[in-house]
């Protein structure tokens, strides 16, 4: 079910009476290419999609935040003055606490912790926040790898910026939302999801340099569409595997004597790979070649060469499957189904991996046939029914 502005305004009226002062829309994302590169200070090429988290809100005169979630049909309330103390009092160190929160959130409980975390992070950076009452509702599927949590965080930040009257800058706000996710919720993610949710541009993917946080919109070729292919599989072990991959990358960077794998060229890797054990070398090779592919794919899209961009996406999938080992049977089946269609320029798994979604770049005039074909083919191979949808690239978090 999709959600629109009217839905959250109606929900606000029903729950709080009267009209909201602001309505925020903050999108989920799909990453075209540049996977597991953000925490290596490399390049990513995601787009903000037409699936979003919406907040309708009204300022309060006190420092309380009172929220109703339309998705979970639940209320939550917290005091902005109590957050620093709550954080300080966490008994078992924030990692364990955070992991517990993340597990809760994945089950659909604890959604308000994302709001609290962003408030805590903003206040910690010196923003003096006003309280508000409001409703939250979204249509980014939870746990599918389309960054529903980053969308919720950035929606919260955008709402606070409106009612507390401070300037909205996607870059700094994304860093504070990431801090909330890392330190309050306890998920060790990179910067991609929050940043694209903040800086997305309609009709464009965005090339992000995850070191400088420079963002460059890249137009999507007009005769193409981006298709999200949800395997509907969800894996529980993503967290630990993700953290393990990060440690391997950091170890490889240390061995090469650089700050991050971003600093290693493919030539340098060829010469020095022997210093790493075989598995770490494969992990590093993925990251180093993926950075190259991402820059090449951005250049290909800029010159309207969807075929070249698609080939790079196919290579990316192979590298994620064989070198980084974060794909799954379901993802491979989906990607193979997509790649078998003549209208498909390229397809790959997207996001952290192990389950969730694949993404494909497809000829616009084949979109319907591609959707029917991949749905049937994936179902035939896995006996699971996927969710396939053509998505539109949209703007990042904004007041509407
Ligand atoms: C998750 C993280 C991102 C990024 C991707 C992999 O989505 O939240 O920061 O690391 O995995 O590219």
What would your notes on this structure say?
Helices cover 45% and strands 21% of the residues. The chain has a 6-stranded mixed beta sheet with strand order 5-4-6-3-1-13, sandwiched between helices. It is α+β, with helices and mostly antiparallel strands. A hairpin with a 5-residue loop joins β7 and β8. It contains 13 helices and 13 strands. Bound molecules: alpha-D-galactopyranose. The site of alpha-D-galactopyranose has 10 residues, from α7.
Question: Any chance you could write out the topology, listing elements then pairs?
Answer:
Elements: H1 5-16, E1 22-31, E2 43-44, E3 46-59, E4 64-69, E5 74-79, H2 83-88, H3 94-106, H4 112-124, E6 132-138, H5 148-164, H6 170-185, H7 192-199, E7 204-209, E8 215-219, E9 224-230, H8 238-256, H9 266-272, H10 278-302, H11 306-322, H12 329-339, E10 344-349, E11 357-363, H13 367-382, E12 387-391, E13 398-399
Parallel strand pairs: 4-6
Antiparallel strand pairs: 1-3, 1-13, 2-7, 3-6, 4-5, 7-8, 9-11, 9-12, 10-11
Helix pairs in contact: 3-6, 4-5, 4-6, 5-6, 5-7, 6-7, 8-10, 10-11, 12-13
Bound molecules: alpha-D-galactopyranose.
């Amino acid at each position: 079910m999709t959600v629109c502005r009217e839905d959250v305004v109606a929900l606000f009226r029903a729950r709080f009476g009267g009209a909201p002062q602001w309505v925020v829309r903050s999108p989920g994302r799909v990453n075209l290419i540049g996977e597991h590169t953000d925490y290596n200070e490399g390049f990513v090429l995601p787009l903000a999609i037409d699936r979003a988290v919406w907040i309708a809100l009204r300022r309060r005169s006190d420092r309380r935040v009172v929220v109703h979630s339309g998705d979970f049909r639940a209320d939550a309330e917290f005091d902005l003055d109590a957050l620093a103390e709550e954080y300080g009092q966490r008994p078992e160190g924030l990692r364990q606490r955070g992991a517990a929160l993340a597990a809760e959130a994945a089950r659909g409980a604890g959604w308000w912790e994302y709001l609290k975390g962003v408030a805590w992070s903003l206040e910690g950076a010196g923003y003096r926040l006003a309280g508000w009452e409001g409703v939250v509702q979204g249509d980014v599927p939870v746990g599918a790898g389309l960054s529903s949590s980053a969308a919720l965080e950035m929606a919260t930040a955008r709402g606070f910026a409106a009612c507390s009257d401070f300037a909205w800058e996607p870059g700094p706000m994304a860093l504070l939302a990431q801090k909330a996710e890392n330190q309050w919720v306890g998920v060790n993610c990179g910067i991609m999801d929050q940043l694209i949710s903040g800086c997305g541009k309609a009709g464009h993917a965005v090339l992000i340099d995850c070191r400088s946080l420079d963002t460059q919109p890249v137009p999507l070729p007009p005769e193409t569409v981006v298709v999200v292919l949800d395997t509907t599989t969800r894996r529980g072990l993503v967290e630990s595997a993700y953290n393990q991959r990060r440690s391997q990358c950091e170890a490889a960077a240390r061995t090469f004597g650089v700050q991050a794998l971003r600093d290693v060229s493919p030539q340098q890797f060829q010469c020095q790979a022997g210093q790493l054990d075989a598995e770490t070398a494969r992990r590093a090779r993925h990251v180093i070649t993926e950075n190259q592919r991402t820059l090449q794919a951005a250049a290909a899209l800029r010159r309207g060469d969807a075929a070249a961009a698609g080939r790079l996406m196919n290579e990316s999938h192979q590298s994620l499957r064989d070198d980084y080992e974060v794909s799954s049977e379901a993802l491979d089946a989906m990607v193979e189904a997509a790649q078998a269609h003549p209208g498909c320029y390229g397809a790959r798994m997207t996001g952290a991996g192990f389950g969730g979604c694949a993404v494909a770049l497809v000829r616009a005039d084949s979109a319907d046939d591609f959707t029917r074909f991949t749905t049937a083919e994936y179902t035939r191979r896995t006996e699971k029914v996927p969710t396939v949808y053509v998505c539109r690239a949209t703007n990042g978090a904004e007041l509407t």
